[in-house]
Amino acid sequence: MIHKHVLECVHRTLCDITQIDKPSGGKVVLLGGNFRQVLPVIRHGTQAEIINSNIMQSFFWQNITMFHLTINMRVRSNAHSNNQADFENFLLRIGNGKEKLYPNVGSAKLQLPKDLCICPDKNGLKNLTHKLYSDILESSDYSKFTDRAILTTTNDDVDTINTMVMDMFPSTVSKTYLSADTVEDESTGYLYPTEFLNTITPSGTPPHKLTLKKHAPIMLLRNLNPAAGLLNGTRLSVLNLGTRLIETKILTGTHAGDTVFLPRITIIPSDAGLPFNLKRRQFPIRPAFSITINKAQGQTLGKIGLDLTKPCFLSWPALCCIFQS
Hints:
Shape: globular
Number of strands: 13
InterPro entries: DNA_helicase_pif1-like_DEAD (IPR010285), P-loop_NTPase (IPR027417), Pif1-like_2B_dom (IPR049163)
Domain DNA helicase Pif1-like 2B: 195-241
Structural class: alpha+beta
Order of helices and strands: HHHHHEHEEHEEEEEEEEEHEH
Domain DNA helicase Pif1-like DEAD-box helicase: 1-99
Family: Belongs to the helicase family.
């Protein structure tokens, strides 16, 4: 979901272009979207700041007329959905904030159906991983990685789960790639030791230490070649681990099945929240056993696991987005 400032910027730009002081400069603007989605990301934002970023909180909202679609085509086109009507109603109740709440706990606690939950004990995460991936690891049918993932809330949790599942992965062919990290402004490089730069992993950036195994699923983090299907978010499978190139097979999209080679590239995060620009040379990928909830938005997955072992703020629309994945 876009930030309200984006909509307001479009409004002001059209007013400047047309020199007409009316909503969107007197032009008709068509917006398409779903309010049952993840709210805009606000770095270190509070719950109030996150909610306030919604376009419904904008001064421009009073000028918008809403038209509603009534059929959830994503659910109906998903062959994995059983009891279709019940599942559609379940999604609507979550999206509208009307699903049953935990008694005597507070209005922010949602009670999920017991058949969807795993006992939250010390082995809960391992049990979740086993339930989601055990058949793949035992049968070596790696094509099933295409539509499976464990969703979690933070990048740190994603790294933890990816490392855990990678250790469980049966392949004996393994390789670890270390990045070359510097700062963009070389005149200030002496202020930031390489050891410190190695510990930083901004959002959307591959880690300093990237451990991969043959046939493991990975996700591309940059648009390398859109014409060849190499887009940000593309899922691939590792075929061979070279020193300077990684041979992979595309698992998703119109180019699924194609073999491509991935090189190391220099990555400079655009908004890392750091007092300097990190410059990292690494393969633009990371393991794809687990992804964040935000990254899952818009994807269709046949089978997902949801890790909520840590307290977090999830809006009703965010939960709806998760169950629609």
